[in-house]
Known about the structure:
The chain is of the alpha+beta class. The protein folds into 2 domains: 23-153, Fervidobacterium nodosum Rt17-B1 like (Heat Shock Protein 90); 156-240, Alpha-Beta Complex (Actin, Chain A, domain 4), CATH 3.90.640. The chain has 5 helices and 9 strands, in the order αββααββββαβββα. A hairpin with a 4-residue loop joins β5 (138-147) and β6. α2 runs parallel beside α3 (81-98).
Amino acid sequence: MKLNFLSLLFFLFLIACNNEETTSFEPLSITNNSCEDCTTVVIEIPKALGKTKLSETINTALQEEIIALLNFDEISHAQNINNAVVAFINDYEELNNRFPEESMPWEASIHGSIVFENKDILTIKLESYIFTGGAHGYGTNRFLNFEKKNGNELDLKDLFKNEDDFKLLAESIFKQQENIPTNAEINSTGFMFETEVFSLPDNIGYTENGLQLFYEPYEIASFADGPIIVTIPYNEANKHLNFSILP
């Protein structure tokens, strides 16, 4: 019986430790009543629970990103996601009233998922597709990285001990992945880095497989090439990171 009791205590200890390292979420789904020839909006994201600073930071960051994605005229006064959905639909209806023969129903699809979490870091990826007319819509990913201890959202500058040192590593891996000779200029095979110098994307996030660099369509290549994704294993990236990740 003594052995069983000690085993139970150990099991409860493991559960407690696990609870300290994870954040509680519930799914949040927002959709409009779509119909044929109507604008369609589908939003599915995790909502952080509790009244902690971290939960508030996560929910605020997600809300701000979604409002920005749905902001067609760049003069949005939306205070929350529901307001942003209404504004997006109204923007389409206003355009359709002015040009009924030229406008096509708009579409917005936004899905959020937790792609990494340990005791220090939590990362949410927003995958979105927005169509507001034209030849095609625009799809992208957006990483939101959070420091759990202080409940803060991390900017890119917060990720690295020395961004220039990390950039050298990233360029080396980028060239290897994209078959660019080591001593060749970064744009020598057709990429379009500004000033012909390698640069990091705005979108960088922690994932289970490594630190992921996500270059948007048009950012460094043509739209037809799609996004360029580079994943740097943690055993190579850790020495440059403020928050190293155990394998």
